[in-house]
Amino acid sequence: MKVIVLDRDGVINEDSDDFVKSVGEWVPIAGSLEAMARLNQAGYRLVVATNQSGLGRGLLTLDDLNAMHQRLHDRLAELGGQIDAIFFCPHRSEDQCACRKPRPGLLLAVRERFGVAASDLVVIGDSLRDLESAWVAGVAAVLVLTGKGSRTLAEHRERLGETPVYRDLAAAADAILAVA
Q1: Beta strands in the chain (DSSP E)
Q2: Are 173 and 152 in contact (CB under 8 A)?
């Protein structure tokens, strides 16, 4: 079983420096949901792992977060896809929790829940912390240039090493499916 772990803001949906706080602010990136459906239809399981410090900061409620995730589930189902689980960290960076990326807690929880080896996971993210979380967990990482991805590439090119870089989730999915 292959599991693809997706960051949410900046990979699946548009990101915001002011946080994505409501269903009205949750806007899918063009082609991302279709890419996810294609991955599902090829046999990949999809999991979302996302830092959501807006909860800890009081910028949104758990009901707001659940409504956004329900919208994601519904829109993806319309395309014949599904998300098997959503893992999120509600903490602020100063809380020093084990689950906030770049720490590997969310990815370790995914591995435990799905009973998969690190070699059967791929993380797709747009920020250095997404990639660092994968590297610490011993998991393959992919950078997309949407969201914070272009800035991540420009500022941390040397740290990325052999990390694959793609224009967006649709291009990353095409590359994954081409070698599957």
Answers
A1: 3-6, 45-51, 85-89, 121-125, 140-144, 165-166
A2: no
pTM above 0.90, yes or no: yes
pLDDT of residue 166: 98
Answer for the pair 22, 67: CB distance below 8 angstroms, yes or no: yes
Active-site residue flag, 17:
no
Confidence of residue 180 (pLDDT cuts 50, 70, 90): confident
Separation of alpha carbons 5 and 141, rounded Å:
9
Alpha carbons within 13 angstroms on the beta-carbon side of residue 26 total 19
The overall average pLDDT reported for the chain is: 96
Percentage, residues of the chain above pLDDT 70: 99
Residue type, 32: S
Alpha-helical (H) ranges within 15-127 are 32-41, 53-56, 62-78, 105-114
The active-site residue out of 7, 15, 130, 168 is 7
The predicted pLDDT at position 38 comes to 98
State how far the Cα of 15 lies from the Cα of 117, in Å rounded to an integer: 30
Decide if 15 is catalytic: no
Contacts of 58 (CB under 8 A, 6+ apart): none
Of 9, 64, 126, 168, the catalytic one is: 9
